[in-house]
Write a structure and sequence with these properties.
single chain; alpha+beta; Peptide Deformylase; binds zinc ion
């Protein structure tokens, strides 16, 4: 079953997610439904907040975009196949930027349809998370995977990609954002 998305203006998008203490069947079902929802809307990532749940949980699929927007990942210094970690389920994730290099690239968000913009993000990151089986894992990532993980972990802290835009650019998107806010309020 797919879930209903919440849009810009929904309070859940501005909350800090709670840590998942126990990976029980409710969490497993939520993960399955979030993955289904991410695919239904053609997203490369989805945070629990975007389905109105304020939890430290996100799912990512960057394999589909591999041709146009490649990703690289390492585990213990060894390159790993992106397909083998797709869909990626991040429970209680933490992100540590590695090095000073940053890259500007286009981002969008399923909760803010109609808005896309260039965002400057760390080029390489370490992602520390729990798998659905409760294992503590650590991978390093570059490319779209690094960007998607940073974007999703931001969601878990109530941060949206538009928060990084310079005032002038944000103003350009004001009408779209206002419309989303109004629609969200009427629901
Ligand atoms: Zn998003």
């Amino acid at each position: 079953m797919s879930l209903e998305l919440v849009y810009y203006g929904h309070p859940a998008l501005r909350t800090k997610g709670s840590t998942i203490q126990k990976i029980d069947h409710t969490v497993v079902t939520l993960v399955e439904e979030m993955i289904e929802t991410m695919y239904l809307y053609d997203g490369c990532g989805l945070a629990a907040h975007q389905v109105g749940r304020s939890l430290r949980l996100a799912v990512i699929d960057v394999a589909t975009a591999m041709k146009d927007r490649p990703s690289k990942a390492w585990k213990d210094g060894v390159v790993i196949d992106i397909e083998s970690i797709t869909p990626l389920v991040l429970i209680n994730p933490e992100i540590i930027p590695l090095g000073k290099k940053t890259i500007y690239d286009t981002e969008g968000c399923l909760s803010i349809p109609g808005v896309s913009a260039e965002v400057d993000r760390s080029a390489r990151v370490k992602i520390r998370y729990q798998s659905l089986e409760g294992k503590l894992l650590e991978i390093e990532a570059e490319g779209l995977l690094a960007r998607a993980a940073l974007h999703e972990v931001d969601h878990l802290n109530g941060i949206l990609f538009i928060d990084y835009l310079p005032q002038k650019e944000l103003e350009k998107h004001h009408p779209t954002l206002q419309k989303l806010q109004q629609t969200q309020r009427l629901q």
